[in-house]
């Protein structure tokens, strides 16, 4: 599994003892790209209390925003949660006493949506494994957002935990096909086709997109490829520094502000590590200056991802007299329209928007800070000369 917080590139995937068995936990590769990202965000949200609380909660719209899909699309969220509950995680490792341990568990033991909140849980045995960095490496959210292929993200997740050892070790092709989610397709029983359609494209995307570089190697019996492993190196272009132990960050006022807003410990430290204190503070100030924000954590998530407030606007700086007058004029123009015209105006303008700008307009209407210039242009086109005399 996306994901998730910030146990960075060189996170401890095993402790110093070279002879200690590197634990392996495999998640079925049949998850879609969206489900993998969802899985990682849920783990990030739950990580601080993974072994101390039986249930975890997150605002459903915040969850959608963090993954990057329509925050009103609850049907897609339901389908993705259903997929996680139907997906198997399997581990086979040595325990602390050197005894072999095999286990299997649904990735989520249950999930439910009620009152705009997503509640979910892991089985106790799986939660214990997911919380141990020797067993399972948490994936950085900023990196997972870069992936466009589910196979590439699956390969990255299964290789990343071995970054400290430099190699995944040998996997049988049967196991590799399971990890990639193609075990049920006879087409990929032929290595030539598996290599061309799955391995090469996935390795290329991981090397281009993530903080590690992969080199595949194969082992044969006669002329038949039977096993594959991936050599792993840090990507010097995209490497990310480790987080400290957290104590330094936790003592700052900025960390306290994030926690006061409802941001989890892990996510607060991840954001500070990824974006830097100055950038996070700027976005916090920006969000604090918005009117009518009902979901501050979700809005801050988008502000950091989409760089809200980077342009001067009436919401993030003292508006100039000219801008204030334009806003007043736009209010008057909109108020003068008939109700059916107002709806048509909004639909016409929204057709020009996408992504964060569309979301901001849906939230703030004609007072949208992200669309201030475009809104002025729209009304000038709709009512030529509307701003004459405002200079």
Walk me through this protein's architecture.
Strand 8 and strand 9 (224-234) form a beta hairpin. Helices cover 46% and strands 14% of the residues. With 391 residues, the protein is of the alpha+beta class. It is elongated, with a radius of gyration of 24 Å. It has helices at 33-46, 60-67, 74-85, 124-131, 141-144, 150-160, 173-180, 191-209, 247-250, 253-261, 265-275, 277-288, 296-306, 321-336, 339-350, 355-364, 372-382, and strands spanning 25-27, 56-59, 88-94, 100-106, 110-114, 117-121, 171-172, 212-221, 224-234. Mean pLDDT is 77; it is low at 1-23, 240-245 and 312-320. The chain has three domains: 25-234, Arc Repressor Mutant, subunit A (Orthogonal Bundle), CATH 1.10.10.10; 247-306; 321-382, no CATH class. Strands 1-3-4 form a three-stranded antiparallel beta sheet, with helices on one face. It has a three-stranded antiparallel beta sheet with strand order 2-6-5.
Key attributes of the depicted protein:
391 residues; alpha+beta; Arc Repressor Mutant, subunit A; three-stranded antiparallel β-sheet; 17 helices; 46% helix; Initiator_Rep_WH1; DNA-directed DNA polymerase activity; WH-like_DNA-bd_sf
């Amino acid at each position: 599994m996306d994901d998730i917080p910030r146990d960075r590139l060189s996170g401890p995937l095993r402790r110093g003892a070279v002879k200690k068995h590197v634990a392996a936990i495999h998640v079925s590769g049949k998850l879609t790209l969206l489900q993998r990202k969802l899985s990682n965000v849920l783990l990030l949200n739950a990580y601080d209390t993974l072994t101390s609380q039986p249930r975890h909660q997150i605002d459903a719209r915040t969850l959608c925003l963090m993954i990057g899909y329509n925050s009103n699309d609850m049907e897609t969220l339901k389908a993705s949660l259903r997929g996680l509950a139907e997906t198997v995680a399997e581990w086979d490792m040595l325990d602390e006493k050197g005894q072999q341990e095999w286990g299997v568990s649904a990735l989520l033991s249950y999930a439910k949506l009620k009152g705009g909140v997503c509640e979910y849980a892991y089985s106790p045995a799986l939660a214990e494994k997911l919380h141990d960095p020797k067993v399972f490496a948490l994936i950085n959210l900023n990196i997972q957002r870069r992936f466009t292929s589910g196979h590439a993200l699956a390969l990255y997740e299964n290789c990343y935990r071995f970054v400290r050892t430099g190699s995944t070790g040998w996997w049988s092709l049967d196991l590799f096909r399971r990890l990639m989610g193609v075990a049920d397709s006879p087409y990929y029983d032929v290595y030539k086709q598996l290599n061309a359609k799955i391995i090469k494209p996935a390795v290329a995307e991981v090397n281009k997109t993530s903080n590690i570089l992969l080199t595949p190697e194969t082992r044969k019996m006669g002329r038949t490829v039977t096993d594959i492993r991936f050599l792993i190196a840090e990507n010097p272009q995209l490497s990310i520094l480790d987080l400290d132990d957290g104590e330094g960050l936790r003592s700052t006022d900025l960390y306290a502000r994030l926690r006061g807003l409802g941001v989890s410990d892990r996510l607060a430290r991840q954001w500070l590590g990824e974006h830097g204190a100055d950038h996070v503070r700027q976005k916090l100030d920006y969000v604090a200056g918005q009117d009518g924000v009902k979901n501050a954590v979700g809005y801050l998530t988008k502000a950091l991802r989409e760089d809200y407030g980077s342009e001067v606007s009436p919401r993030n700086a003292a508006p100039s007299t000219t801008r204030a007058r334009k806003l007043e004029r736009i209010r008057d123009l909109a108020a003068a329209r008939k109700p059916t015209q107002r709806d048509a105006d909004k639909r016409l303008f929204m057709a020009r928007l996408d992504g964060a700008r569309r979301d901001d307009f849906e939230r703030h209407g004609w007072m949208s800070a992200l669309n201030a210039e475009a809104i002025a242009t729209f009304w000038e086109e709709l009512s030529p000369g509307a701003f004459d005399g405002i200079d």
